[in-house]
Known about the structure:
This protein is α+β, with helices and mostly antiparallel strands.
Amino acid sequence: MKTNLQAITNQSSSEVIKILETNNFYYEVKVNTDGTLLITYVGESKSIDNAGLLIHSMGGIDKVLARCKDYMLEEWETKLKTEQEKLKADRKAARENLLNRHFKYQAQHEADYKALLEKNEVIETTVENIGIVLRYLNDCNWGSWELPKMTIGYSCSQYDCDGKQATTMILETPIDMYGKKVHKLQVGAPRGHLVNYHRVW
């Protein structure tokens, strides 16, 4: 939520401020002598753009004031600091969860690949097996690749697709993929990239 903590620290800690909370912002609301409202971002003095539209969308001045909550300045600063700390903690947890999921998928891809190698000295070139090979290779830097033997000759490449890694396989002989003959396959490419390759799920 947008606010200005530095600015409000210059105010008296005993001052009472009216705070209007919406889905995206915190606003400070002041009642002018003529009964109109001055709505600003917290700690700022200039009215927000389209303040009248905001008031109208909420049902008028009385409805806006009814939604406001009064805070002592010190109480507000404590609330804001707590929310900022929670936001940082939530973002950290989300990043850690994403990394954990990534490592979990990598471990599964490696396990599937190793199991495939243990069963086959030469891997049969099927869509399913190509998916296992490509997902494993996509987790690795291409410089460390040791490509397995497959029943159809092939070449593999790795691409950076706007920051997202993708790996491709081109077969010397097309195979059947859901009723269509294909020889260029890929994993990892986002929409709009490597459009001449068929995605392997």
